[in-house]
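Hey, I was hoping to borrow your eyes for a little while. I've been staring at a protein lately and its backbone has me curious. You're getting the sequence in one-letter code plus the fold written as tokens. Would you mind checking whether the tokens look sensible for this chain? Here's the protein in full, and shout if anything looks odd to you:
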Amino acid sequence: MKGLILCAGKGTRLQPLSLSQPKTLLPVANKPVLFYCIENLVMHGIKDIGIVIHPSQQEIKRSAGNGSRFGASIRYIYQHEPKGIGHAILHARSFIDRDTFVLLLGDNLIMEPLQHIIEAYHQQEDCRASIMLAEVENPRDFGIATIKDHRVIKVVEKPEKPDSNYAVIGAYVFDPVIFEAVSSIPPSGRGEYEISDAIQWLIDHGYPITYSVTRKNYFDVGTIERWLHANRWKLEHDLEQKILIGKDVFLNNCTIKGPVMIGDHCHLSDATIGPYVSMEANVTVKGCQMDHTILLEGSHVNNKLGKISNSIFGRRSKLESETHFSSAYQLVVGDQSSIKISHEQKTIKDRRNDE
């Protein structure tokens, strides 16, 4: 069995952070989401892995390498146009060959062990696919599966009148017949080859489709809000209320409330940090109160602004503030961006308060 991870999407809803690095390399608890996917496959004995990327995403190749650091072998497959999951699968046809494979979406963090959909696939005679489902409160926003007698009998993308609340999330097992399915369906109204349409094609042609239902958390790290939510959950899951501090970290006059994760070579002074803060290596924080925040490598916050919450600071970004506001601030600062707030830049409301 092989593994296939799809990473070629542009990540427009994560801009500006996704403009300067692939969204699948954005970290949750200081680890790229893509790495969780690779480790999940390797944990289940799947070590021959293909990763579908856009030619512009060479940073993924530099970060994950040939897979040896994970105990795997990685082959990179190029998708020049983002035309949906089905389109990406077709590009991997020569890599998959005649093997069964597990398909993961590179921006999804799934806590359910993959063994459950793998076992469901093997338990059903003549099964050609197995999909992971989760019960959701808003089924109109997902691809929704109708199930009967331990089989999937229908899949509809974002139905107006859902038959169930079982959403198809980003983990699948397929055999090579999926290539015939994708090749046989037309593009959707948005010009993409939808994986839900391909699965429905399999069902319509009599191929058994099984499933497993996850009761564990899963995250589509596709927006700023979901990214912060995933980071918070992962910190709490891994650390509870602990504080994890890397090597060569300088702390002076700081209060830290876990869960907090601090990378190597960070410099923190006169700060109150946490809970739910993760910072990568070489981050500097001075004079700051901060919680529910992600700081990427080399970011610098020298702040008298007041409390910072639900914020993200990109790589080598910089915030300098000389003034203080009483309310909490939420900021999203792109890579290598710089923000400076001086006394002269106070708002009219704050000037009136001073008077």
Remarks:
- The first strand starts at residue 2 and ends at 6.
